Amino acid sequence: MQVPLKVNGKAVTVDAAPHTLLVQALREHLRLTGTHVGCDTAQCGACTVLLNGRAVKSCNMLLAQASGAEITTIEGLSAADGTLHPMQAAFKECHGLQCGFCTPGMVMSAVDLCQRRPDASEAEVREMLEGNLCRCTGYQNIVKAVVQGAAAMKA
Amino acid sequence: MGASDFAKLPHIGEPVRRKEDYRFLTGAGQYTDDIVPEGTTHAVFVRSPHAHARINSVDKSAALAAPGVIGVFDGQDVAADKIGGLPCGWLITSTDGTPMKEPAHPILAQGKARYVGDHVAMVVAETLEQARNAAELVNVDYEPLPAVVDVRDARQAGASAVHDEAPDNHCYKWAIGDKAQVDAAFAGAAHVTRLDLTNNRLVPNAMEPRAVIGQYNRATDEYTLTVANQNPHVERLLLTAFVMGLPEHKVRVIAPDVGGGFGSKIYLYAEDVCLTWASKKLNRPIKWTCERAEAFLSDAHGRDHVSHAELALDKDGKFLALKVHTDANLGAYLSTFSTAVPTILYATLLAGQYSTPQVYVEVDAWFTNTTPVDAYRGAGRPEATYLLERIVSRAAWELGLPQDELRRRNFITSFPYQTPVALQYDTGDYHACLDQANQLADVAGFEARKAASKTKGLLRGIGYSSYIEACGLAPSNIAGALGARAGLFECGEVRVHPTGSVTVFTGSHSHGQGHETTFAQVVAARLGLTPDQVDIVHGDTGRVPFGMGTYGSRSISVGGAAIMRALDKIEAKAKKIAAHLMEASDADVDFANGEFTVRGTDKKVTFGQVALTAYVPHNYPLDKLEPGLNETAFYDPTNFTYPAGTYICEVEVDPETGVVRVDRFTAVDDFGTIINPMIVEGQVHGGLVQGIGQALLENCVYDRETGQLVTGSFMDYTMPRADDFPSFQLGHVCTPCTTNPLGTKGCGEAGAIGSPPAVINAVLDALAPLGVKDLDMPASPHRVWQAIQSAKA
User: Fold this and answer.
1) How far is Cα B522 from Cα B568, in angstroms, rounded to an integer?
2) Fold designation for B32-145+209-258+265-298
């Protein structure tokens, strides 16, 4: 099965079996290993990517469903010269990551969240991050980073 | 250099942003599953669906004939190749002098499966899908046997035996303290408080599931094991010397970026050995990545204690003696450090922060048909703290005293302090922690908040916990006397490059803790560099000389101390080189802020000049000194470190629904010297969420009849999420550790240790007006509601 996609701004065609998950296409076929798999029940959100600008769990949809879509993964978020996206920079500044495993999904969710709700309060950020699990940070600095990243994205 | 001088150096105490973050934030981290060696094959494990079963036969023929399959292995293949079982690293001797029961722990089951998820066979195929499909074709003839999963069942006479070697399921009986003195103290007590409690079983659930790549190079006869692991040298030592009988120099263990551990990645697991062994047999790289459902079954679990405690007090509320009995569930086999957790890491902490003159603790450890239980964030110390801080608050309520007042009356105030249960605390200031916590938590405003809650129909409660932990594991001689089968030192190598930048090789491993930054701050501070000029290498036995790894909040206090010792050697040699360059006597040379000076003169050379001279030794005392500037040190601590603090939790409970909401949480910790406060606070936040998670959300449940794991996925096991918590209020007290050169105590586990009793005490305080006196973790809405209903009845 040939599936055309635009991934991180580049047009690609993935040749994969029909039951291939989007996350498998990204990790195994395109070798974009920044998108992680942390569970098997679509609970942890480590595999979150942007699909046509909206955060989706890439473990929970087929590659075929993404045909023709524009996908942004964590690898596609920073500028071409390597400068971090304001949300990535906020995570670093606020110590919003420890082991780094949930981080790509967390950052992608945060970018989507702030695009939709640029003025979200701390409580709203906590509620909207329900779909992303982190076992290291206790969430406090992630929430701080998202609030700070949202402000930076508006600027 | 002494700890007080160290604390004053530049970069110490600075919230330096992490050096490791860029790669993690851009998707460039390299976790084991991200690595795909050329020609990689894939392994899938066939796991027992039964909690206990005889394995009459394993028919591999259909699987072997399946597309893409290149190997299928079972227990008979393991036995034929004489691959040993997984060793236990800590020998506990029973009170009657007999050694603990230590049944074999085969890497693929031999004759019996002993828990749901026990590894029975391994299928290796060209693709993961082929391996999965073929695993379905392995035909295992199981004969189910009765199972025991709860210690209350395992200890019953006539219970089904997990192992023939332990027909009564008893692994050991261990005790510490003077029972006769304790009994005498109880006889004269004015008041005795009694408590029965359960410390609920937990699943660690690091976000990165375990993953392994086994590789063998026929040309060099060398193995490379890439594995999500917290201590690669220990992994190699156990794998080579105790299981496979391989020479260590032929095995390289790499633990690359590791996505959290919390203890669960300390251990040598069967999968690690199976892949290493089969990579040679098949002469192909083999990868296995654990699925989450498989992780629930196969990662070592935590906690699972059932205890009875009694506290004797005099008429003024002074503690006279504490008596504890604990039944500990070890699971089906002895995992690497499992036996030390309910003994050495638990009972020795039961003096807590208090001057209780007599403590006696008895522990019975049992085999059950469950996943092995081992150290999980805190390891024994959370269990001790939960028991002690629950009974202290209960005693306060029984005596009509405020929770903090009873604690104050019993705090240790003079150091060093020898507890009745083996430990000697070097330093601390427990009153200062409690006072600061009371202030930060605005305890003075509690009654007003309680009244406000009441107007909304909610019950508000406040709970205290004053914890202590023993970290910085551990003095090897003491650990050895207590049954450890390995040393517990750490190793550090400091390599100064010709241009003055530095690479450090440490045996500590970072899987989220930020060693690449904190350790760089230590080196930069000592040598007058910036943290950017220092790189930290860890997690590779091929690059790091040796190491005991990361667990027990030991990295900075033991691993950091080893680096400090290596830096002492670097500084001593560099001074000699500088003295030569400045034509001065070694004894007249001082080193500070990256410059060597000659006392009483204006002569100076920089650290960079000395480094260059060491590698371009044209003007150099070659007759007295070797060129180069590269030093290694091993550091064995002389005592544990004793982080301590007071946590205060405030909850609101809805009596109609049983829903508990944590409204405020204050944590004041004494970690001694803090090198990077940003990282330290991050560690506390994470620990608090795991501890509050245990108290309110998380619970690993087995069906008591069938032994099936009921909470086997993120759909069934309640993981803490962002909206379960308020922002935490943190504070610090600093009494520097007196037994290591940094003055540090360790901060990785405190949050998980101190918080569970603070939460449950708060819930009980809230429910007191309804007559609820007891509650086990997790205080889920269902449990709280039931407790309210039974109190009404």
Assistant:
1) 12
2) Aldehyde Oxidoreductase; domain 3 (3.90.1170)
Backbone angles phi, psi at B328, to 5 degrees: -110, 135
Q: Say how far apart CA B627 and CA B614 lie, in whole Å.
A: 5
Chain B hits for A75, CB-CB cut-off 8 Å, are 26-28
Using DSSP's 3-state secondary structure scheme, residue B235 falls into: helix
Compute the average pLDDT of residues B291-318: 98
Coil vs helix vs strand at A135: coil
Residue B259 is which amino acid? G
ipTM of the complex: 0.98
The amino acid at residue B157 is A
pLDDT at position B698 over 90: yes
* Chain segment B574-592, per-residue pLDDT in tens: 999 999 999 999 999 999 9
Find the mean pLDDT for residues B429-444.
98
Question: Would you say residue B3 has pLDDT above 90?
Answer: no
Render pLDDT for B168-178 as a digit per residue (tens, 0 to 9). 999 999 999 99
Residue with tokens 């802020």: B593
Cα–Cα distance, A102 to B294 (Å, whole number): 19
Q: Given this structure, which CATH class describes domain B305-474+639-792?
A: alpha beta
The structure tokens listed for B300 are: 């070592």
Token couple for B164: 């023939």
Count chain A–chain B contacts defined by CB atoms under 8 A.
177
Q: Do domains B3-11+489-635 and B305-474+639-792 have the same CATH topology?
A: yes
Residues of A in contact with B725 (CB under 8 A): 126, 138-140
* Bridge partners for B496 per DSSP: B502
3-state secondary structure B291-316: CHHHHHHHCCEECCEEEEEEEEECCC
From B511's Cα to the closest Cα of chain A, the distance in A is 5
| Record: contact B27-A104, CB cut-off 8 A | yes
Alpha carbon distances (Å) from B592 to B303, B566, B575, B607, B629: 48, 17, 11, 10, 18
Please say if the pLDDT value at position A51 is more than 90: yes
Instruction: Read off the pTM.
Output: 0.98
Domain B3-11+489-635 has CATH 3.30.2130.10: no
What is the radius of gyration, based on Cα positions, of chain A? 15
Q: Do B26 and A75 touch (CB under 8 A)?
A: yes
Q: Judge: B292–A40 Cβ closer than 8 Å, yes or no.
A: yes
Which residue in B127, B220, B182 sits closest to B357, CA to CA? B182
